[in-house]
What we know:
The protein is an alpha+beta fold. 38% of the residues lie in helices and 22% in strands. It is built from 14 helices and 12 strands. It has a 5-stranded mixed sheet with strand order 5-6-1-7-8. It has a 4-stranded antiparallel sheet with strand order 9-12-10-11, with helices on one face. Helix 4 packs antiparallel against helix 6 (122-137), helix 11 (211-218) crosses helix 12 (222-229) and helix 13 (259-280) runs antiparallel to helix 14.
Amino acid sequence: MPDMRHIIHADLDAFYAAVEQLDNPELRGLPVMVGGSPQSRGVVATASYEARVFGVHSAMPMATAVRQCPRGIVVRPRFDRYREMSRMVMDIFHHLTDLVEPLSLDEAYLDITDQVGTGKLPLGIAIDLKRRVNEETGLNVSIGVGTCKSVAKIASDLEKPDGLVVVAPGDERDFLAPLPVGKLWGIGPKTAEVLHGDGVETIGDLATQPDEWYARRFGKRAQGIKAKALGQDDDPVKTERNPKSISAETTFAEDLSNPEELRGVLGKLSGNVSSHLSRKDVKGKTVTVKLRLADFTTLTRQTTLASHTNSEEAIMETAWKLLTREMTEGRAFRLLGVGMSGFGDDLDGPQQLVLPLFESLSID
């Protein structure tokens, strides 16, 4: 039986909108919708809680958001500013523990097992962390605390905004039981619909199903899903100390199809990856391009070079070749990413051939 762990999931509330309201006091208390123009198929990146009252949510077409919230204020994203604020928050997290797993600019897991081991209470640690983030950045963070990542993540979402939920050791199953099955990690909207057809409405319903049913419904994922329904999850908090890949990506406020604009973005992303590789003094061999289309289909394309490199030019030109093959008539992109993996050196000489391209589709 593994030792008891204590995990925090920290999630900044309406992050982009909160930063805009922080920097511009005139926006405070008003419905703010960060994203692209409603006149050019822009989408909502983040909506303030004042806008969410009107049903506005992330990934909604901005034109729809404006119809639902006519007095909403549309603000174009400032990603450099969001990254700056994110770094400040992550620095606070790292001051508490070295075991931090960032999931995005606005959320992360923190393993506070060692801190609890010194006699501190999880609740006290969470309260102090919320206070420090607010005092040092002006932002609110919702926190969930549990003995595993999946429970902590669910807990952080329950009392937003500015929420704090601590699930005591041993209470995981009772905590999860009354919640909608779609709250569980790994159960998307489509899967939830199928489960509702089986009479499975809550996580508690899911937890009582027999193993044969799990195998039929989830296949290879059966045991993992059942364990999470019971509040059991051994997945560790993964730090970036030994990354298997280094990547950079951006989501556009408006879908892009113009080759010159796409090449410009690709160049910036390749430069970020190259700089990160150089700082860590590593070189990679496999270049990957991640693409998300206007209909949310996600594609990855990759190729392996003859030798290891951290050259911005080599990464850029390889990524551009991969991207241009996907720039077909009428296709627009809402996300673009560049990554490098296959770290090592070339002591054995160049010997690996170019790998075939592959595709993966996002589900749920």
